[in-house]
Design goal:
This protein is an alpha/beta fold. Helices cover 42% and strands 15% of the residues.
Length: 349
């Protein structure tokens, strides 16, 4: 295939955006493996001091997870969560359609997953300045796989971006926190926690291709049960353009590649994706995302009645409201945020 090279005369600001994007993209794709290999390397080649420090670090990881599931309390170091160049590369936008009062906690049911959940990661993790402006006193958090928080080195990076374990125990801990401004947990001036959950997960990521909005939701009701158990409101959010920043190697449902991906997902919870994107100096080959706009629209909260034992019919009722809200959001905003809106359809499976 012909390579489409980037022109030599590109503004410095765009060059910096591309370099920062390249750094973080390679980091996202490689860190889970690199973290494990680094531990093996240090344990094998490190001296007695290095090995002793590693053992102390392992003990700290164990203790920290037992304490609060490795959650970084508050918003962490805000300088670390103000990466404007990463946002501007696409760019990523955040649209508010309703108030989120800081007198309760929230689960943001977020769709679509895409390959990396980039819209959510930017707005609620890597650059939260816009979020804090639109939703004051509401701490943004992102739920991700539990075993990431037991993985040395990797856990330190994602914790500082406001990521938390999506395990049942971790979510209960975070979403059950007090909203009283006088409570010790709210000494930072924030009184609410909002946890974004990419409900479709690895299954939805495998279905991600440009122009195709395929959501995995019909049988995903765990987030609804969690909302009811903790009394948290559910906020549907939709990231328009999320599926367009990457393509991936064709993986139809019955293909050998998809069967392999499903097998790995069943064992690890992660689907091995083969991204297709651009390069640092070309527009046609590589694994960097394309420069395409992402707009995360935050919908209206769906309030629930708290119950330790959620009734099945009530869960179905709330679940159907989430689906209805997502369908309305897609129909209402696709004309403004999707270039080929007349051909785009929302498929919920």
């Amino acid at each position: 295939m012909k390579i489409e090279w980037a022109p030599l005369r590109v503004p410095l600001a765009r060059r910096l955006q591309t370099l920062i994007m390249a750094f973080f993209t390679y980091l996202f794709f490689s860190m889970p493996i690199v973290s494990g290999l680094l531990v093996v390397f240090l344990m094998y080649y490190g001296g007695i001091i290095v090995r002793s420090l590693l053992l102390i670090y392992f003990a700290y990881i164990y203790k920290d997870y037992k304490k609060n599931f490795a959650i970084m309390e508050g918003n962490g170091w805000l300088h670390y969560r103000s990466n404007r160049k990463y946002r501007d590369y696409f760019p990523v936008e955040l649209v508010k359609t309703a108030e989120l009062p800081p007198n309760r906690n929230y689960i943001l049911a977020s769709f679509p997953h895409g390959l990396l959940g980039t819209g959510i990661c930017v707005n609620m993790g890597m650059d939260i300045t816009k979020w804090l402006e639109l939703f004051p006193k509401v701490r943004p958090k992102i739920g991700t796989l539990d075993h990431h928080f037991k993985t040395p080195f990797l856990r330190e990076i994602i914790r500082w971006w406001g990521m938390v374990s999506v395990s049942k125990e971790s979510l209960v801990y975070l979403l059950s926190k007090s909203n009283d401004q006088k409570h010790k947990d709210n000494s930072d001036g924030f009184t609410s926690n909002a946890v974004a959950i990419l409900v479709g997960g690895a299954q939805e990521a495998m279905d991600s291709h440009p122009g195709r909005y395929i959501l995995t939701l019909k049988n995903r009701k765990g987030f609804v049960k969690m909302a009811i158990r903790t009394g948290s409101s559910i906020v549907p959010t939709f990231s328009f353009g999320e599926v367009d920043i990457f393509d991936q190697v064709a993986n139809p449902p019955d293909s050998l590649l998809r069967r392999f991906q499903n097998a790995v997902k069943k064992l690890t919870g992660i689907s091995p994706l083969l991204p297709v994107g651009r390069g640092i100096f070309n527009y046609s080959h590589g694994i960097l995302p394309y420069r395409r706009r992402i707009v995360q629209v935050v919908g209206s909260p769906i309030h629930v009645v708290k119950s330790d034992q959620p009734d099945a019919d009530y869960v179905d009722n709330i679940h159907s409201k989430v689906i209805e809200a997502l369908e309305q959001m897609f129909d209402q905003h696709k004309g403004q945020y999707i270039s080929n809106s007349t051909e785009s359809q929302l498929i919920i499976q």
